[in-house]
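sry for the spam today, last one i promise. struct tokens for design, 581 residues
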């Protein structure tokens, strides 16, 4: 079945046929009722003729009942096929729209034709354009492949259903139960997904779109593990499925905690600690979801199978907001310890972003979808050590797929931003090397990035924003371990984190008290002060998230002198005056 064949499909004709079959079924049932009335009249006779008439009427009623059941099964099979074909046709329509949005088109055989791109005169811009074309190819291929597959399966299912109905239906006479296939179409396996960047994500999105409304409800109810963790499925469906998975995880965690507490040996002390942490982390997820502060929460991932609980929680409508922000934390980040605090912070920052977003909506996602390195692992682990880039490399695909999945699941594209702090910035740097749907990245306090030029990444020119606070030694010296300092990346934009009361004072900390020339309310100090309300760093992050680069405060010469050549002032900005004469 070609794309041209699918475009020629008219599911509405099957809908009309299903409606007419239902009318015929009702007429047959009416005849059966008439015969039943005559049978009751015959039963008032006596003798052999009466008995023969009753038996004959019984046979006629039974035959009409079987006929009504066959018509019902046929009508519902045709109606189900119409819904499946409509979903397949919608997938073709999405492929056509996505191609048209980029000036391309798809022929009747499913081949994508891209327009001749004019030279931009900018290698970085042309590389980004080529990566967008690559994403388009993968998405169009996934949509068309799933559409053809779904149409072929629908045709086969309809043939089998019609054959079964012709041989006689088991549906009770007089019923109109919606008969659908007992088995649900499974999601694509990783090895069978379309190749290229985000292939698995686009294949999952196409699979979800190929389902009927009834099948979607069933798969969320009966197979939530297919939906909850699957990038490319709409946030609303993932949330509903993940609520079921959360309840299962809570039940399992409490059972493990009871078993661990029952043993008093030293050998299971680690298990007791781990099970208690899992219970606390899942409770933190439950607490955040139950908040009633006007912000809609969506649980996009919950996974308690690893050493730490993973969770992804959004505030705002990820499926419809014009701007979607994904935050990635760094060293020592854990769901149980940090999710509540991050959620409170991002509720505030989301509100600020909506105020400057020209009437557009903003959603903020706390992405704790990887086991972040912990402090104790600096001396106990090699692979999970914050001094190693292995964790960042290994989890870059998960972050890239999540961001791409948000785009694949939506009807309209969103402006997507990644905020990444500390080691999370290094992870985001590796994700930036992959082709994804991210538009802007803001890294703050990042120890280092795996590239020296934005042109080497999948990002568009001017989309990498770097923030480094005075006194943040991780930002200042982390490049010794993690490659290029973010401050030295060609094509990156340095944003301000430091506000002077008077310009031109430079970084002369040794001659003036800090309070004489630094606006402490707007200045971030150390490694963990970037999100504090009222700081220039927080305002810059909000401007990036809202798609308002015009509101960013760029790093000036005074701040550059402080953050690149000045002495370290420690991690606590309130202690700076004590370091001065």
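last one done:
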């Amino acid at each position: 079945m070609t794309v041209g064949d699918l475009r020629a499909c008219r599911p509405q004709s099957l809908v009309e046929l299903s409606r007419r079959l239902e009318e015929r079924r009702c007429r047959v049932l009416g005849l059966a009722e008439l015969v039943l009335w005559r049978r009751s009249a015959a039963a008032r006779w006596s003798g052999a003729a009466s008995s023969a008439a009753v038996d004959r009427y019984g046979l006629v009623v039974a035959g009409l009942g079987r006929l009504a059941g066959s018509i019902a099964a046929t009508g519902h099979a045709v109606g189900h096929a119409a819904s499946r074909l409509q979903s397949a046709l919608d997938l073709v329509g999405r492929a056509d729209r996505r191609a048209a949005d980029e000036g391309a088109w798809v022929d009747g055989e499913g081949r994508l034709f891209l327009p001749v791109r004019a030279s931009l005169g900018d290698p970085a811009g042309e590389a980004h354009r080529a990566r967008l074309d690559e994403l388009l190819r993968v998405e169009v291929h996934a949509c068309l492949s799933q559409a053809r597959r779904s149409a072929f399966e629908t045709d086969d299912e309809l043939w089998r259903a019609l054959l079964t109905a012709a041989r006689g239906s088991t549906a009770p006479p007089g019923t109109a139960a919606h008969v659908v296939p007992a088995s649900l179409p499974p999601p694509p396996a990783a090895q069978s997904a379309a190749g290229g960047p985000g292939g698995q994500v686009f294949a999952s999105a196409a699979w979800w779109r190929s389902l009927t409304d009834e099948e979607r409800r069933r798969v969320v109810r009966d197979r939530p593990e297919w939906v909850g963790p699957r990038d490319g499925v709409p946030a609303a469906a993932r949330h509903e499925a993940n609520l079921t998975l959360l309840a299962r995880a809570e039940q399992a965690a409490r059972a493990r905690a009871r078993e661990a507490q029952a043993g008093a040996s030293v050998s299971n002390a680690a298990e007791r600690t781990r099970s208690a942490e899992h219970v606390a982390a899942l409770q933190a997820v439950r607490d955040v979801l139950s908040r009633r502060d006007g912000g809609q929460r969506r649980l996009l991932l919950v996974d308690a199978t690893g050493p730490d609980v993973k969770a992804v929680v959004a505030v705002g409508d990820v499926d419809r907001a014009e701007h979607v922000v994904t935050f990635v934390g760094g060293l020592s980040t854990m769901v149980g310890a940090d999710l509540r605090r991050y959620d409170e912070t991002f509720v505030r920052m989301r509100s600020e972003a909506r105020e400057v977003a020209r009437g557009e909506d903003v959603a903020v996602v706390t992405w704790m979808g990887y086991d972040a390195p912990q402090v104790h692992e600096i001396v106990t682990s090699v692979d999970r050590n914050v001094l190693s880039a292995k964790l960042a490399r290994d989890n870059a695909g998960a972050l890239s797929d999540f961001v791409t999945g948000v785009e694949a699941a939506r009807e309209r594209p969103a402006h997507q931003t990644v905020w990444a702090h500390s080691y999370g910035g290094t992870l985001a740097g590796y994700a930036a090397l992959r082709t994804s749907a991210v538009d802007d990245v803001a890294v703050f306090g990042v120890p280092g990035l795996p590239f020296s030029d934005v042109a080497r990444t999948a990002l568009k020119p001017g989309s990498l924003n770097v923030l480094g606070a005075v006194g943040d030694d991780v930002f200042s010296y982390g490049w010794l371990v993690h490659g290029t300092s973010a401050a030295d990346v060609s094509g990156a934009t340095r944003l301000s984190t430091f506000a002077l009361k008077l310009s031109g004072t430079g970084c002369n900390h040794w001659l003036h008290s800090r309070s004489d020339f630094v606006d402490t309310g707007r200045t971030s100090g150390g490694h963990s002060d970037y999100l504090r309300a009222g700081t220039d760093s927080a305002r810059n992050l909000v401007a990036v998230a809202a798609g308002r680069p015009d509101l960013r405060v760029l790093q000036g010469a005074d701040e550059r002198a402080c953050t690149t050549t000045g002495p370290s002032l420690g991690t606590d900005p309130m202690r700076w005056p004590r370091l001065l004469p």
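Residues 48-101 form the longest helix (54 residues). ok im logging off now
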